[in-house]
Amino acid sequence: MAALCCASMSLYAQATAPSAEHTIEVMLTPASGQIEISDKVRIEGRENYVFRLAPWLNIETVSLDGQSLRVTSRGHEHSVALPDSGSHVIGFMLRGVIPGRATEQSSTAMLSSSGSDGVYLPGYDAWIPMDDSAPISYRITVKLPAAQRAVATGKLISENPGDALYQAIFEVSHPGEAPSLFAGPYQVKERRSQGLRLRTYFHAELASLADVYLDAADGYIQRYQATIGAYPYADFHVISAPLPVGLGFPNLTYV
């Protein structure tokens, strides 16, 4: 009973806490795991901003409304004092190296990892400044070498496969959970079905299975729309995972 009460209080706090809006830019090099992140967090209705950050990330700079700001840290928890509860933008510049994939891959399925076969950044691992007390909305711009492809939770807004860099933009306008980001040497196949964009992001050796997965995804979405209501997203993505997992995220599966 106590556990249920604590869980209920946590959910209530998250539902009532002011949401945050993140504008994220990511420069990623999958081969080395190097990552640079710019995150501008717009918040209001708070007197401080408390957040977690993955231990493999370093905070390069922090600003408040364009002015340099000091962060108070205790372990992996950090906080920023705000001058008032009005609207503010906290800017973060982060840099780090994503941990390489461990030999016992299944034991690291909850943590960020990188390798020549792809990068995995789950939202719950706090690869952006993560305030667990409130839902967030976000817009992510990802840039990486031209031979790579990236996909994130959220609606695909645009992509540009340039000669030197590939860029893709994803967005979630309704506050929810933290974004998850995936990248790798994927071959992409797309299908449109009743206004939905269905995609597979498969490694070359699995590319021949794309139509099978697109057929299955399309069939199940149509089936459940007929029984429980409209599918709530604009896209559904199936991503091949180097990890021995089958994980579900908003509007995609990593399997």
Describe the structure.
The chain is mostly beta strands. The model is unreliable at 1-15 and 103-107 (pLDDT under 50). The protein contains two helices and 20 strands. It is globular and about 55 Å long. The longest helix has 19 residues, at 210-228.
The strand order across the widest sheet is 5-4-8-2-1-11-14-13
How much beta, percentage-wise?
A: over 45%
Largest sheet: 8 strands, mixed
* Mean pLDDT over all positions: 90
Tally of DSSP helical segments: 2
SS class: mainly beta
Level of helix content? Answer: 10-25%
Radius of gyration (CA) equals 19 Å
Give the low-confidence spans. Answer: 1-15, 103-107
Given the C-alpha coordinates, what overall shape results? globular
- The tally of beta strands, per DSSP, is 20
Cα distance, first to last residue?
35 Å
H/E order of the elements?
HEEEEEEEEEEEEEEEEEHEEE
